[in-house]
Amino acid sequence: MDKVVFTDVGPRDGLQNQPRILSVDERLSLIAAVAAAGVSHIEVGSFVSPKAVPAMAGTGELVARLPGDDGVHYSALIPNRKGYELARDAGVKTVNMVLYASEGMAQKNVNMSIAEAEQATRDILDMAANDGIEVVAAIATAFCCPFDGPTDPGIVRDIVARFIDSGIRQLVLADTIGAANPLQVRALTRELVEAHGAAQIGCHFHDTRAMGVANVFAALESGIYHFDGSIGGLGGCPFAPGASGNVASEDVIMMLEQMGVHTGIDLDALLRASDLAENLTGTAPGGRAKAWLGPWLAKQQEL
Amino acid sequence: MDKVVFTDVGPRDGLQNQPRILSVDERLSLIAAVAAAGVSHIEVGSFVSPKAVPAMAGTGELVARLPGDDGVHYSALIPNRKGYELARDAGVKTVNMVLYASEGMAQKNVNMSIAEAEQATRDILDMAANDGIEVVAAIATAFCCPFDGPTDPGIVRDIVARFIDSGIRQLVLADTIGAANPLQVRALTRELVEAHGAAQIGCHFHDTRAMGVANVFAALESGIYHFDGSIGGLGGCPFAPGASGNVASEDVIMMLEQMGVHTGIDLDALLRASDLAENLTGTAPGGRAKAWLGPWLAKQQEL
What we know:
The structure is a homodimer.
Chain A: E1 5-8, H1 10-14, H2 24-36, E2 41-46, H3 59-64, E3 73-77, H4 81-90, E4 94-100, H5 103-110, H6 114-131, E5 134-140, E6 144-145, E7 149-150, H7 153-163, E8 170-174, H8 182-196, E9 201-204, H9 212-221, E10 226-229, H10 249-258, H11 267-281, H12 290-302
Parallel strand pairs in A: 1-2, 1-10, 2-3, 3-4, 4-5, 5-8, 8-9, 9-10
Antiparallel strand pairs in A: 6-7
Helix pairs in contact in A: 2-11, 7-8, 8-9, 10-11
């Protein structure tokens, strides 16, 4: 437990679930604030239909305006081949795809079966290998599906086994609706790390049921060191009214730093990014730890 | 991990930190709502100077008006011998005392040294044995002290070793300012459970730094099964402006129930108690999971 690679997905998974739609300039300012805190990986947007997800319109322009030489790994979500081509043409170096652990979510999200979504991912893996583009895939509903109920861990194990050697950079267990509990997380991540090591496996938690931080700890115990979070806890879930979003980046990073796990992230700058996220979206979900962290950091600076 | 004994400390640790002071009637209504949810242990108040802690004035009257035959274990905090006598005379069957793992907190809280506070507890243990009253002791600043910094786990181990066979019912590791992280919690609780078993050891966490639920999980992994929490997350900390209070009872109980640990507590009734806590205090700290839990429970009832 001495290092963690952290991806902030707020500019994508967070903003797409906020009522207020940000301009490309506003989205870029948020991304810059997160990068300035030392976050090495940021999911900046998605190449989806602007009619379906208006908050993600202009992601091509946004990608073109990202700094090219700051050492930050910027990625974008793509739902299909068309999205892949748009992302590639915009200059994206890492594309994020979605695999499905439940038929219900695969149908609802992309109108495909699990097998069809896997074939689409394989096709894009082939193209990406030719184009020199990295592919990361989230496994949606890895713990629970809002349509099909609890997910059989065997389904997730099989998906990981099918894709771990496919040339994919990382497979991310996504607790899409924030339903996982730390016992489940510990059991599944332990099995997967024992079978495949931790270098290619990540975890993505939501804080809907207050277990996001506990789930990060449980996965960390299994050896997982790739985690997603969202600045300011931006997000929400269309299937759970009133639910909070992704686990807040500042909550995760603060816990890791306090446990002596080095993240390379400056908490003070991360809090400023969180404040910006709140100001821009106006919904202020906020990390749970912020109320304490702000005054504490101010006091540290006085000393 | 098949049972948990849960103590709601909201009517004491929660209310004493709220700006609004409740009447004895209001406090009794909150206690009744928590008891109605199936919580078996409730800390109902403290016998301290009403000048020092106005929110706890009238605890003698409150205790006299508690139902005597509902099977719920009601306890009250006492700071010293005078408090003990008031509690005994009011009919309290379990008194909670405080031991200290840091000199700074012992001085600030009761103007005693660690050793003097231990002697006061021993004196009261003798009286309580004669009077047939149970004693529970919290070990304050068991992980960190706002005055002295991080606590040496060896100090806590020694306190536990000195008191485990003293006739005390339970020793509760109290993360007084919500500074513990799950790695620390796991390490200390594992050592203590290995040395003494778990029957007499409890944990009391605050959610100041968003790690309250993760700390419960870490302690549970070590075999701890006595936990404190506060209805609606009532509380706060005088040493951390803006900080949240005790870990919310509904967040803890929801996690436990979702992991298959039986608590005997009705989540629906617990949420109603949480709503009452918010309404009475007007500060609505609220459990993190409430936003999700309410709609979910409503949906379950429709099915």
